[in-house]
Write a structure and sequence with these properties.
It contains 23 helices and no strands. It is an all-alpha fold. Helix 2 runs antiparallel to helix 3, helix 5 packs across helix 18 and helix 16 packs antiparallel against helix 20.
């Protein structure tokens, strides 16, 4: 936005990347505090506290005077600290208040509002850029301050997570909270049954404090889940999604849209597309499954990034058809991401953890996500200035790596109880995948039992082992 650049003087790519990424680095650090804090003072209060810190940072950005880039960046860092506290906590809270059969849909509902916020941000900037004064860039910060204040106040009106209440020994209040959430007593008891055997370990972790909370993430029974969650959350951002969202005007200009207005409008269209494809994801998320969505979505994400890189490397974008193809592939990328990784990976990284480690593991995974996010946000303008194709090849390669890892190491988690999830992580996901593709490979008894786990979670699909080849 030209008014922003005039206010803070000329911004070269390095400063541009620093401004965008500063909020992310602070968020990655404070997200490590958010998990243990949410275990101590509750999910809702941590969300409210983080929102207030975010508002304070945005107010500092709003009030920065001409040439005070350092003040502006400091405000971004404070806002990032607030985001670090509340964003991963929102994921944890959403999963804990949702009955098993709708937790996917509820998580996608949160993502739907995220996409609405992204689109609103694009169009707010598209409208405010028409102003000739500093208010062209200040108005979006006013909107963020209002939104953050509403979240801070609203979070305090929400019921506590029933699972957190039981975790801290307030069982009667947990029953009341389930009632406020509209969950029947019978259904609430069913939801809590899976956590009963974990209660002693929960008490041990709670009593020993912060050090034991983090140590619990690396115990033998959960460390595989911790590593997988951190890997998925980190590498999902290495797909380049935030590079596309943050620098959409720059990317569309590079692809041939000449005017600033056209670039901002195209960015707004990406926001609308994001909303549109999130709606069917909301409807079918609990039917598609986590593992198939991650792998199939990853194929689309990797393919679109690699094709864009190939078009730039071969100079096919010198022709009008090549530029149109790049713009189309950016939309293919966004659709693939919005219908898969945008929701599935965040939910998966949290739901595979037992209650005693869920908040801390979600915070650690979110920290990994933000660290990679910071690297992408800071380096993308610098990388694009040196090479038009390199970033896309890097993003596509990282996405392909996620697909390979998920094929070999990601068991399905949708609708599976805690006990059965333990068994799922003892299995071999790639065996089931290969035997599904090659019927002549007869499953052994362990594979049949693992399929029974998933069939129990999906009564509409009874386990059937393939007949032996005669």
């Amino acid at each position: 936005m030209s008014q922003f650049e005039d206010h803070f003087e000329h911004l070269e790519p390095a400063k541009h990347g620093l401004i965008v990424s500063s909020i992310l680095l602070a968020a990655s650090v404070f997200s490590l505090v958010g998990g243990p804090l949410a275990d101590r003072i509750s999910r809702t209060r941590t969300i409210a506290l983080g929102s207030l810190v975010f508002v304070a940072g945005e107010a500092m950005c709003l009030g920065s005077q001409r040439g005070q880039l350092g003040v502006f960046i400091a405000g971004r860092c404070i806002a990032g600290a607030g985001e670090g506290l509340f964003l991963s906590t929102i994921t944890t809270y959403t999963l804990e208040i949702a009955p098993t059969h709708i937790r996917g849909r509820l998580s996608v509902t949160v993502q739907l509002f995220v996409t609405v916020g992204i689109a609103a941000g694009y169009f707010t900037c598209f409208g405010s850029q028409r102003l000739d004064s500093d208010w062209a860039w200040r108005i979006p910060y006013v909107v963020q301050i209002i939104s953050g204040s509403i979240l801070a106040c609203g979070a305090l009106l929400l019921p506590h997570s029933p699972r957190w209440l039981k975790h801290v020994g307030r069982a009667r209040e947990a029953q009341v909270a389930w009632g406020r959430l509209g969950v029947s007593l019978a259904e609430a008891e069913k939801e809590e049954e899976a956590a009963e055997r974990d209660e002693q370990l929960q008490a041990t972790t709670r009593d020993k404090g912060l050090k034991e909370t983090w140590a619990a993430l690396w115990r033998k029974d959960v460390r595989t889940r911790t590593i997988l969650g951190v890997f998925l959350m980190g590498l999902s951002n290495a797909s380049g999604v935030d590079g596309v969202l943050y620098y959409a005007p720059l990317l569309f200009s590079q692809a041939g849209l000449s005017s600033t207005t056209a670039s901002f409008l195209a960015s707004g269209v990406t926001g609308l597309v994001n909303i549109a494809v999130t709606i069917p994801t909301l409807m079918y998320s609990d039917k598609w499954g986590r593992r198939p969505s991650t792998i199939r979505g990853g194929v689309g994400i990797a393919a679109s990034m690699l094709l864009i890189g190939t078009l730039y490397a071969s100079r096919a974008t010198d022709a009008k058809a090549g530029k149109i193809a790049v713009i189309a592939l950016i939309f293919v990328f966004l659709v693939s991401f919005a219908m898969s990784w945008a929701v599935v990976i965040r939910v998966y990284a949290s739901e595979i953890q037992p209650m005693r480690t869920r908040a801390a593991a979600t915070a650690l995974s979110q920290a990994a996500n933000w660290i990679v996010n910071w690297l992408v946000a800071f380096s993308t303008p610098l990388f694009l200035a040196k090479s038009s194709s390199g970033p896309y090849f890097l993003f596509g390669g990282c996405s392909l790596a996620v697909v390979v890892v998920c094929f070999f190491f990601q068991p399905e988690s949708r609708g599976i109880s805690l006990e059965d999830l333990d068994r799922a992580f003892e299995g071999r996901p790639w065996d089931l995948s290969l035997k599904g593709l090659v019927p002549c490979l007869r499953p052994d008894q362990e594979d049949i039992e693992l399929r029974d786990v998933h069939a129990t979670a999906r009564p509409d699909r009874l386990p059937q082992a393939p007949s032996p080849v005669e």
